[in-house]
Amino acid sequence: MAEPTPRRNEPRLRPAPLIFEPAEAAGDPEHFFDLESIEDPRALLSRATELTQAFRAAADRAVEFQAVAAAQLADPRRFDRLTAADIAERAEWTEDYAKRMVEFGRDLMRGNAEGRTSPDPV
Predict the structure, then answer these.
(1) Of 62, 94, 88, 58, nearest to 73 (Cα)?
(2) Which of 78, 86, 92, 113 has the fewest Cβ atoms surrounding its Cβ within 10 A?
């Protein structure tokens, strides 16, 4: 089940920053944001929790941008408007999910998404 989307007027959580890893570290499958080098389990739990919250916040925000883009692409006032099926194909969603994301995006753009969560993928 998806986490609730923060309300537009609420301050967003400020989770730990996602620091980009150097290319040589990213190529090592055992390396993940330097977690493997933390020996103290308390520190490891703390940092891993910070990263989890940061990734969740980033994912929630990205879904909101997806929804707004879907709503803009489906806008009937656009001469190049896309159907829900077209949007679904581009985003690799089901058509039903695309319809729900378009509606969620419209709610976000109107400022009516308070307390609403993003649609669960099917």
Answers:
(1) 88
(2) 92
How many other CB atoms are found less than 10 A from the CB of residue 111?
10
Model pLDDT for residues 23-59, shown as the tens digit of each residue: 555 566 677 888 888 999 999 999 999 999 998 999 9
Give the sign of the dihedral formed by CA 33, CA 41, CA 53, CA 2: positive
Q: Provide the pLDDT confidence category of residue 15 given band limits of 50, 70 and 90.
A: low
| Cα angle 53, 59, 62; round to 5 | 140
Helix (H, G, I), strand (E, B) or coil at 79: coil
d(CA 96, CA 85): 9
Q: Which amino acid is at 118?
A: S
Closest Cα partner for 53 from 65, 45, 43?
Answer: 45
Task: Output the DSSP codes for 6-56.
Answer: PPTTSPPP-PPP-PPPPHHHHT-TT-STTGGG---HHHHHHHHHHHHHHHH
